[in-house]
Amino acid sequence: MMILMWSLVSWAGTLAGVRFPDKKVVQGQELTLNGMGLREKFWIDIYVGGLYFPEKTKSAKKVISADVPKQLDLQFIYSNVPKEKMRNTLEENLKENPQISEKARNQMRTCYTWFQNFTTGDTVSFVYLPNKGTKLIINGTTKGTIPGKDFMTAVFTIYLGPKPASAQLKKGLLNH
């Protein structure tokens, strides 16, 4: 029984060869790996995403709206994702989600300026800090912070909202 429990725990943080820790600490609060999902495009594995939240939940609405520390980590497994492709994909997702505010759309365009060409092993983290904003961290380096809640809501809506970037990724992040 103990061996089975151990293998389930270690598997919970690994997908497509990418391993995420089960816990992280953000702003002094422990966050739990809620789930992991794979982003595919045209049958090509692009990246693995991991969602960290204060407690496990299957509610996209709760994750999107909660004004608590939370983090979305992406690790690229595909070898060539140009920054323009990431920008275009996010723009498509903004069009699919008209409920995202104009302020957040403009903030997303600021975020694009911090992107780079991505390759296997590169990491991107969106870390939301209440009363501060959302930090964008690429390969361990903070590129900037977008103040307020609007940008955080937009990012989490793109990944978890009614018209997500990837239904498969959303399902994994919410551990369905």
The CATH architecture can be given as 3-Layer(bba) Sandwich
Q: Which class of secondary structure composition applies to the elements?
A: alpha+beta
Broad CATH class = Alpha Beta
Please tell me what the overall shape is. Answer: globular
Q: Which percent bin holds the helix content? A: 25-40%
Strand % is 25-35%
Number of E-state strands: 9
Overall mean pLDDT: 90
**Biggest sheet character:** 7 strands, antiparallel
Describe the structure.
A seven-stranded antiparallel sheet has the order 3-4-5-6-7-8-9. The protein has a two-stranded antiparallel sheet with strand order 1-2. It has a single domain, classed as Chalcone isomerase, CATH 3.50.70.10. The protein starts with a helix and ends with a helix. It is α+β, with helices and mostly antiparallel strands. It has helices at residues 2-12, 60-65, 83-96, 102-112, 150-160, 167-173, and strands at residues 14-15, 18-19, 23-26, 29-41, 44-53, 70-76, 123-129, 133-138, 141-147. It is globular, with a radius of gyration of 15 Å. It has six helices and nine strands.
